[in-house]
Design goal:
Mean pLDDT: 89
Number of domains: 2
Structural class: alpha/beta
Distance between the termini: 35 Å
Oligomer: single chain
Shape: globular
Radius of gyration: 20 Å
Number of strands: 18
Strand content: 35-45%
Helix content: 25-40%
Amino acid sequence: MEINSLMQHFPPNLTETLLIMGTKDMQEIRIIAEQNASVIKKGILMDCGVRVTREELKKIINSMCRGSLYAMQQNLTQGYITLSGGHRVGVCGKCVCENGKVTHMTDISAICVRLSRGIIGAADGIMEYIMYQHRIYNTLIISPAGCGKTTLLRDIARQIGTTHKVCIVDERSEIAACKDSVPTHDVGRFTAVMDAVPKGQGIMMLLRTMSPEVIITDETGSESEEKAIGELINCGVKIITTAHGYSERDVMRRKYIRNIIEDGIFERIIVLGKLRGEIKVEKIISDGRSLRRA
């Protein structure tokens, strides 16, 4: 889905304002009921000056769910829905719980649309650390939200997937943004995508079925993913994945990521950050030794 196609979901006055502001550098569109909509461009939060009513927000959600909020409830219980093109829509509202688990969401009061873009060459500056000649390194990319981890993964897949058997586990349908199981982003001609599957389960399925050389995932960190990555490494397959955080020390606070790092699985750890709204590589670590600092 082209970014401009998102505008069909919004009220005409908001659509007009967003187009005037320009969508080129937009990262997020944020809408809170009975407040002015806002956008993030180059890391800067900007007021659109267009108030969105609760009824208008309800219509936006209904449009994004193709008229069936019920059909999207499984996604909504996880706090988001993913639109065609890989655009992720985070949602806030009233949660209904049973036995301590969210079963569905009602009265949605706010959304955050994170825009998905395929940027050819986005990973050029770090590819030499991920792949040297024909060798590919097990790599963990660390960054806070909004620093372009998924965009980097997409371009890494594209570049490696021109010469190697790459498989993507795309749990939230964001990396490849498949439509009818076909990627809408360029992720490499030899790249296969396991779409909308939990990462740990998807890794094991790919190991059994696709004889991958490299598996790429986003936002790893659960117990099942730790076990699956261990199996992957035992099979001689490389892993490239990401984690939320500001530093390697930050992610080490999380048990399962810490276990993987302490096992020495990652040959490269790349830490991203922001400087005046621009994404930058802060540090590249190889086997515990810093290769590059910003």
